[in-house]
Amino acid sequence: MGETKLMSLKDKRWSLLGMTALVTGGTRGIGYAIVEELAEFGASVHICSRNQTDIDKCLEEWKDKGFNVTGSVCDVLYNDQRQNLMETVASIFHGKLNILASKLLLY
């Protein structure tokens, strides 16, 4: 596993090990940066984006860094896709979601 900020910190009070996070719009910009920070501190992260190619590219980068990140396609403007996303996240994280970072919340 790649070195993380968590491993380099003497004070582990910022550890996110065991925490789960969902980041919408996680393949670009602020969302991408949020995923990097959460994963570096040990969180398991799920991202969504409208484009599978973007998701695959990012997941490969994060895998190479040793981050625990999964992803799925979702356009959060549509209720049925949001519903499916939450079912996916609930399944992956066994019903436990600690952190939500949504592009919709950032505007």
From TrEMBL:
SUPFAM superfamilies according to UniProt: NAD(P)-binding Rossmann-fold domains
UniProt keywords, alphabetically: NADP, Oxidoreductase
Pfam family, one: adh_short
GO MF annotation: an example: oxidoreductase activity
Protein's UniProt keywords contain Transport: no
InterPro entries according to UniProt: NAD(P)-bd_dom_sf, SDR_fam, TR
Entry-linked PANTHER family: ENOYL-(ACYL CARRIER) REDUCTASE (PTHR42898:SF101), TROPINONE REDUCTASE (PTHR42898)
Similarity section: Belongs to the short-chain dehydrogenases/reductases (SDR) family. SDR65C subfamily.
UniProt protein name: Putative oxidoreductase
